[in-house]
Structures are given as C-alpha cells and as structure tokens.
Amino acid sequence: MEPKLGGILASRDFVYVSLGRKIEDSYFVCMCSTEWPEKEPKQDMVRVEVEEGSGLSFSPDPEHKTTRTLLRWVISMDMKIPLVPTLFLHQLHVEGCRQYVLCMRKYLSMRQELLLPAS
C-alpha cells in the first residue's frame, strides 16, 4: 500500500536482530532494529524502529512453577505514525499485546486438552 495521509495509513516493515539466552530458570530475548544488506526501506512502506532495550523474559511463576509462566514484555517501537498522539498509540499497542497473550493462552489450553488422555 502506498503511504497515505502523510504516512498515517501505510504498510509497515521492520528489520531487527534478536538474541536469546537462558539464565537459570528464565529465558530472555532482547531485540533492536538493524540495517541489513538488500533489506533497505522500500518506497511504498514505512520502516518501524525497534528501540534498544526491547525484549521479553519468560520465567516460572514462583507460586505455580510447573503450570504457569510469567511473561514480561518490554517493547519500545517508533511506528512513525504522524499526527496521532503517542498515548493513543501506546493504548492500542497494549491492547494488541493483551489480545496476543489471551489468544496464546487459549491456544495452549486447547493444545494441552488434546494432548492429555481422557479421564
């Protein structure tokens, strides 16, 4: 899609590098934008920037170690959407992340039901 309304309506892409590590019982993934040969920004897209310090951590819930995982999701991106208040964009992003977690929880629950023998 060709950017319209000064870039408010546009296809977006991003190129980032990520690194994951396991430290004790937890997994950490950090990410940030990068440049890559032959992956230059395209004229018909807006390049999103993933800021340094963005990432995820997964650790066992201290109260339910074998059945629950704590997810910490720290992400800072410049979506390059002009004229839209940052607070509004943050609210949309938080809701998108919440919906992702809810859908993932539902998926994993259904998958677990399929893998467990019927009682």
Mean pLDDT: 85
CATH superfamily of the largest domain: START domain
CATH topology of the largest domain: Alpha-D-Glucose-1,6-Bisphosphate, Chain A, domain 4
Kindly report how far apart the N and C termini lie. 52 Å
| Proportion in helices | 25-40%
Percent strand equals: 25-35%
Structural category is alpha+beta
Give me the count of strands.
Answer: 8
Low-confidence stretches: none
| Total helical elements | 1
Our Rg estimate from Cα atoms comes to 18 Å
Strand order of the largest sheet: 2-3-6-7
Task: Provide the fold topology.
Blueprint (H helix, E strand, L loop, with lengths): L10 E3 L2 E8 L2 E8 L11 E3 L1 E2 L3 E7 L8 E6 L2 E2 L7 H30 L4
Parallel strand pairs: 1-4
Antiparallel strand pairs: 2-3, 3-6, 5-8, 6-7
